[in-house]
TrEMBL record:
Major location category of this protein: membrane
Alphabetical list of SUPFAM superfamilies matching this protein: MetI-like (SSF161098)
Domain ABC transmembrane type-1: 78-269
UniProt gene name: araQ_1
InterPro entries: MetI-like (IPR000515), MetI-like_sf (IPR035906)
Keyword terms, alphabetized: Cell inner membrane, Cell membrane, Membrane, Transmembrane, Transmembrane helix, Transport
Cellular compartments annotated: Cell inner membrane; Cell membrane
Transmembrane annotation, as ranges: 7-31, 82-105, 112-131, 143-163, 193-213, 248-269
Name listed for the protein in its UniProt record: sn-glycerol-3-phosphate transport system permease protein UgpE
Family: Belongs to the binding-protein-dependent transport system permease family.
Length: 282
């Protein structure tokens, strides 16, 4: 039984409210800025309530696109980011779960060494790997393509490690029972391992989708065609241009729309996400 202490309860709620305000206030300011015209934004006294330009700003962004030189329509950039994030997420999960399954349930020479080599890649900073990866992608003619945006990022040592740790918790009796029933490796994987891994897959899906959606450095390196710009790249270009040609209402509006897909993924999958993390801790 948890003892009810009014002061501690009050203090916990105060801390939670301050935390929510600390996170939500910048988002609210960005939304308010997107609903005012640029003259209000540059006046030095930003209002704290939405303005009258909300339909004009968001209608322009979703229609013809922000009137900023070098910025493609936001709908195109959102599509590019969504395709890249989904390919990265599904690819990472598929490769990682199969790799972990092979390492845990197949007996072959060097499997521990292979896992150690996979795990060591976590210690390599992005700066060490990015230029050799760019050279390979360029030699394969994958610049300015969805394959070039996504395939080099679909390997994940972290996801492989998490799946391996989960598979090690599956009772050996379950494996023996499946073997006695005549289930082969793929049948055991399909009928037993995948259903048991659903919450872990959901938790990783949320994390990896946000990772793929927020990619900036890699798309910036391999993309020169505006048709393949991601939304993060587009917002950065709009903000750079905004220093000389202020269009901050469109920049903030684009940032608000760019937040929606990750937020929706977290909202709709939050129960499975939390459950998957709790099961990992067990």
């Amino acid at each position: 039984m948890v003892e009810n202490r009014p002061f501690l309860t009050f203090l916990a709620h105060v801390v939670l409210i301050l935390g929510v305000a600390f996170v939500a206030l910048p988002v609210w300011i960005a939304f308010v800025a997107s609903t005012h015209d640029q003259s209000t934004f540059l006046s030095g006294s930003m209002p704290m309530w939405p303005g009258d330009n909300i339909w004009e700003t968001y209608g322009t962004i979703l229609g013809t696109g922000a009137p900023v030189p070098g910025a493609p329509p936001l709908t195109l950039m959102l599509k590019n980011s969504l395709v890249m994030a989904l390919i990265i997420t599904v690819g990472k999960i598929a490769i990682s779960i199969l790799s972990a399954f092979a390492i845990v349930y197949f007996r072959f020479p060097g499997r521990v060494l292979i896992f150690c080599l996979i795990f060591v890649t976590l210690m390599l900073p992005v700066e060490v790997r990015i230029m050799p990866t760019f050279k390979v992608v360029a030699d394969l003619g994958m610049l300015n393509s969805y394959a070039g945006l996504s395939i080099p990022l679909i390997a994940s040592a972290t996801a492989t490690f998490l799946f391996r740790q989960f598979f090690l918790t599956i009772p050996e009796e379950l494996v023996e029972a499946a073997r006695i029933d005549g289930a082969g490796p793929m049948k055991f994987f399909r009928d037993m391992v995948l259903p048991l891994s659903q919450t872990n897959i959901a938790a990783l899906f949320v994390i990896l989708f946000i990772y793929g959606w927020n990619q900036y450095l890699w798309p910036m390196l391999i993309t020169t065609d505006e048709k393949f710009y991601t939304v993060v790249m587009g917002i950065k270009r709009m903000s750079d241009v905004a220093d000389s040609d202020p269009q901050w209402n469109f920049v903030m509006g684009s940032a608000m729309l760019a937040m929606l897909p990750p937020v929706l993924v977290v909202i709709f999958m939050q129960r499975l996400f939390v459950k998957g993390l709790v099961e990992q801790e067990k």
